[in-house]
Amino acid sequence: MTLTALQRDFRSWLTGEATDAAARFGKRALPGLAVYLNNYRGQLMACLAESFATVRAWLGDTVFDGAAATHIDRLPPHSWTLDAYALEFPDTLEVLYPDDPEVGDLARLERGLGRALVGRDAESLGLAAMAHVDWSAAILELVPTFSLLPVTTNAAAIWSAIAAEQTPPGAAVLDVPALIAVWRREDSPTFRTLGPTEASAIFMVLDGRTFGDICAMIADEVGEEEGSQVAGNLLGRWIGEGMIERIAS
Amino acid sequence: MLEKRQFGLGLRKPHYRDFLGGTDAVPVDFVEVISENFMVDGGRPLHVLMRVRERHPVALHGVSMSAGSADGVRDDYLGRLRALVDMIDPIFVSDHLSWSRFERFSSHDLLPLPYTREALDVVCANIHRAQDVLGRTMLIENPSTYLSLPGDMTEWEFLDAICGRTGCGLLLDVNNIYVSASNHGFAAQAYLSGIPADRVCQIHLAGHSQGRELLIDTHDKPVPDPVWSLYASALERVGPVATMIERDDDIPPLCDLLAELDVARDIAQGNLRRAA
């Protein structure tokens, strides 16, 4: 058997328990093949359990393990990093639980936090960067770990309760879909649900619009006088929460 | 006198606080980390490693290079590893005599190779490629295996040939020798006699578990007595080289692993006294 044929057979055994492929290794190889199969599936199960500990707590161990086994059957890993294997698990959960949208939302939130944990480091925004800024022309750049997650359920409240080891609320669909901002603040991934005005402002930041444009948008929404205060509060909050990496003019 | 950097431990998450806190460094000569855990863009894992690096030399030990892949090693993997090597300046860069990837499939397990001339050509070409990208020689570790594939040579002859053709060094895992010897019925001492002793740069020690029919390399128990005995034999054969204990599951408090490392120190000192 060539090395290519051997590796193809081994893959068939691990991903589909192909008995014809196993037979080509000979009867004496069966105990060993069973060990490799157990190691392979166990490694992937552990990866999913670790990456989605909150989803596991929400679903319960037995249900979660069943979903993870389905994912392993459905999608063999294809990247050298196990981190990548976890990325597609939310898609499997959405297929498995179409009537429980909070499961998919919760999984995508947990995936977003996991990505933020190991995302590129941001440069620190020092006080000097904010001196002599022409705010009307200023363009804000968000930290590289920043992402937006659209949700239709109260997944954020469920996640927070489980993280705090409190009884989570029941699943509920939101009156209107919401956006969750996910980013890493220093070493800790964090998230916050955005209100409609802030969500619009963040979209403008992502589009590269100036802070002056954002102030004008908010003024149109809430009036000139209150608009300045709302815009100033948002800017202060973004900077204070470590969302901004750079201010360019 | 033992060389510096002689005794190390794997750096694992439950012990981060021990390695980062306090005014006294943990009494090890080096730490070893799983390379892939730190081949990331940023964040806490890298921050922790850089801080530990200020106190201890670091060895990078990989599990995903797939040196035995029939279709070669992946450039994106090697590029990431090179970036980490440049950042850390490790004392060793190692991976396994195994394969884990074939075409678009990555098993994330160390799968066995047939010790054939064809496989030897593949492994040597892949190690050459890796060493070219990394700009340095690597260490290759003997694996634990659970099935024996038809081949042209023994595992130790295969390792000897790899070292000769690529210039790489050996990371000798004494527990893996014990496990594979038990599983396949060869003599561990014959293995030790057959390896190129002068190419062994590092030794791994670990525990294993008894499966239904085979020993399994689980890294979830203390180093057992037969592996300590084999370690003593290995040191007689290869002389004093860097030794570290791997523990990846059921990880105990750091003090327990430091106590195990003291056993390794005692055995190594005893070997040196006998040799003097």
Task: Outline the structure in words.
The complex is a heterodimer of chains A (249) and B (276). Chain A has 249 residues and is α+β, with helices and mostly antiparallel strands. Chain A has 2 domains: 3-99, no CATH class; 127-248, Outer Surface Protein A, domain 3. Helix content of chain A is 57%, strand content 14%. Chain A is built from 12 helices and 5 strands. Chain A has helices at residues 3-16, 19-23, 30-51, 53-59, 61-74, 82-87, 89-96, 101-117, 155-163, 196-206, 211-222, 224-240; strands at 139-142, 147-153, 173-185, 188-194, 244-248. The termini of chain A are far apart. Chain B has 276 residues and is of the alpha/beta class. Chain B has a single domain (7-275), classed as Divalent-metal-dependent TIM barrel enzymes (TIM Barrel). In chain B, 41% of the residues lie in helices and 18% in strands. Chain B has 9 helices and 12 strands. In chain B, strands 1-2-3-4-7-8-9-12 form an 8-stranded parallel barrel. In chain B, strands 5-6 form a two-stranded antiparallel ribbon. A two-stranded antiparallel ribbon of chain B has the order 10-11. In chain B, helix 8 packs across helix 9. The radius of gyration of chain B is 18 Å and the shape is globular. The mean pLDDT of chain B is 95. At the A-B interface, helix 1, helix 3 and helix 6 of A face helix 2, strand 5, strand 6 and helix 4 of B.
Short recap of the structure:
The complex is a heterodimer of chains A (249) and B (276). Chain A has 249 residues and is an alpha+beta fold.
Radius of gyration of chain B (Å) = 18 Å
Question: What structural class do helix, strand and pairing data of chain A support?
Answer: alpha+beta
CATH class of chain B: Alpha Beta
Nearest-integer average pLDDT of chain A = 96
CATH architecture of chain B: Alpha-Beta Barrel
Number of strands of chain A: 5
CATH superfamily of chain B: Divalent-metal-dependent TIM barrel enzymes
Low-confidence residue ranges of chain A: none
